[in-house]
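Why does residue order matter? Because the sequence determines the fold. Keep that principle in mind as you read this record.
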Amino acid sequence: MPLLAARYAHTNLIAENWQELAAFYETVFGCQPVPPVRDFRGPQLEAGTGVPGAALRGAHLRLPGHGEQGPTLEIFEYNPLENRARTAPNRPGFGHIAFEVPDVEAARAVVLAEGGHALGEVVTLQTATGARVTWAYVTDPECNIIELQQWS
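Structure:
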């Protein structure tokens, strides 16, 4: 039994341009905006984040495949914004977000056409149970890692 009664709510991405990044996830993956646009600043935000002078603006996007009450991707733009470390799939911390797609090669081509970047090749692995997964790592236009996967 878990120590806390918990339910998954959202994953947050900090963007250089929240509107452009949100548009990418809406266009490519069919994520749906969940109004209102968030716009926070002031002493409570500073206290909660530990960032002096913090201000943030952004939105939640409903992730596809889980209905109207499904989890969201929260995309915020901070002011001030720290410099980004180089993207790497083996960096500790948040690794990637994964989307199951019907055709990994085709999905990869769409991501690249919409401003994303390739990190590796499309590969197929067989699990210990005999299932096969075809997958590839790509990034969104701001270099956040996305896994595209297809199970068979």
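The chain has a mean pLDDT of 94.
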